[in-house]
Amino acid sequence: MKKIKSVTIIGTWRKAKALPAKKWAEQVGQLIAEQGLELISGAGTGISELVVNSYRRHGGKKYTTYLVAPKYMKIVGEKLGPRPDKIIQTKQDYPGRNLTMAKKTELAIALTGNMGVLEEIIFNAKDYNHPVIVIDGYPITDMVKALPNLKKQVKIISNIRSLQNILAKY
Q1: What's the pLDDT tens digit per position in 29-75?
Q2: What's the rounded Cα separation, in Å, for the pair 145 and 1?
Q3: Which of 45, 59, 63, 80 is buried most deeply by CB count within 10 Å?
Q4: What residues have CB less than 8 Å from 32, skipping those under 6 apart?
Q5: Helices 47-57 and 22-34, interaxial angle, to 10°?
Q6: What residues contact residue 67 under an 8 Å CB cut-off, 6+ apart?
């Protein structure tokens, strides 16, 4: 297996929808920081914000964000979350940005979300054959399970120890 240097977090950008996954997000951020990995996300609100804040509190060193064109963020009301170390402005809409981000991903972790997150999982797992981990217990898990070919490529986990073990392999 190839040694990974970064982990991409995908999940809902809506803060209220992210709150039920706060404990998981904090554990994931801590683990990524402890592994010394770069953290990558979209604009950094919702799930990303929770993960980034934990990542920073636990000594995470490099956080990169991929942004859509400002007009698309404005249309949906998304804002830039915690200050990233590096901003990559794609000038694309959400699907275009998601595809661009997936090209650069080494490993993705999905935590909550719906159709947009499913799209990112598909880009990562199917289009680029990247390892994808989905945290069980959220609607996105049911979507992945409903697609048998996708389910074969995605690792669904239900505890932080499983995530630690997977990251240790890389």
Answers
A1: 999 999 999 999 998 899 999 999 999 999 999 999 999 999 999 99
A2: 25
A3: 63
A4: 7, 39, 51, 55, 60, 167
A5: 40
A6: 42, 43, 73, 80, 87, 88, 89, 90, 97
Which tokens belong to 3? Answer: 């040694």
Q: List the one residue out of 125, 132, 128 whose CA is nearest residue 149.
A: 125
User: Each residue of 134-162: pLDDT tens digit?
Assistant: 999 999 999 999 999 999 999 999 999 99
pTM above 0.85, yes or no: yes
- Two tokens, residue 103: 């090209």
Q: Which residues pair with 110 in a beta bridge?
A: 10, 134
Delineate the domains of the chain, giving CATH numbers in brackets. Answer: 6-169 (3.40.50.450)
CB burial readout 25-38, b (16+ within 10 A) else e: bbbbbbbbbeeebb
**C-alpha distances in angstroms, 61 versus 4, 92, 108?**
15, 27, 18
